[in-house]
């Protein structure tokens, strides 16, 4: 299982995963998505962007905390081999 914090930037010009943010949940990965923060659209976009970046299925990316916040706690229950290394590389 893999758990980590993210800082979401909804309404961005383009989707991107990468960078570091010191937020409410500690050190967090920055995830920019084009979707607005309305009706769960940004959460779905975040799950999709993280799934692509970590090479997992979107349904395997779970928002554990922060459904209605820019600061979220994410869990990937069955992270494949190499996912932790990919995650670490995204924090740069």
Alpha-beta classification: alpha+beta
Mean pLDDT: 95
Order of SSEs, N→C?
EEEHEEH
Record the strand order, biggest sheet. 2-3-1-5-4
Backbone CA Rg: 12 Å
Count of distinct strands:
5
The biggest sheet amounts to: 5 strands, mixed
The residue fraction in helices comes out at 10-25%
Low-confidence region ranges: none
Shape: globular
Number of continuous helical runs: 2
In angstroms, what separates the terminal alpha carbons? Answer: 22 Å
| Fraction in beta strands | 35-45%
Question: Could you characterize what this model shows?
Answer:
It is a single chain. The protein is of the alpha+beta class and 92 residues long. Helix content is 24%, strand content 36%. The chain is built from 2 helices and 5 strands. The protein has helices at 41-54, 83-90; strands spanning 2-9, 16-23, 26-32, 62-65, 71-76. The protein has a 5-stranded mixed sheet with strand order 2-3-1-5-4. Strand 4 (62-65) and strand 5 form a beta hairpin. The longest helix is centred in the middle third of the chain and has 14 residues, at 41-54. The radius of gyration is 12 Å and the shape is globular. The mean pLDDT is 95.
Summarize the structure.
This protein is 24% helix and 36% strand.
């Amino acid at each position: 299982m893999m758990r980590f914090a993210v800082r979401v930037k909804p309404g961005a010009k383009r989707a991107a995963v990468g960078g570091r943010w010191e937020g409410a949940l500690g050190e967090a990965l920055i995830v920019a998505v084009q979707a607005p923060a309305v009706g769960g659209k940004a959460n779905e976009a975040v799950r999709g962007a993280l799934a692509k970046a970590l090479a997992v299925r979107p349904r395997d990316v779970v928002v554990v905390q922060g459904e209605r916040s820019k600061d979220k706690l994410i869990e990937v229950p069955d992270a494949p081999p190499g996912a932790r290394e990919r995650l670490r590389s995204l924090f740069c």
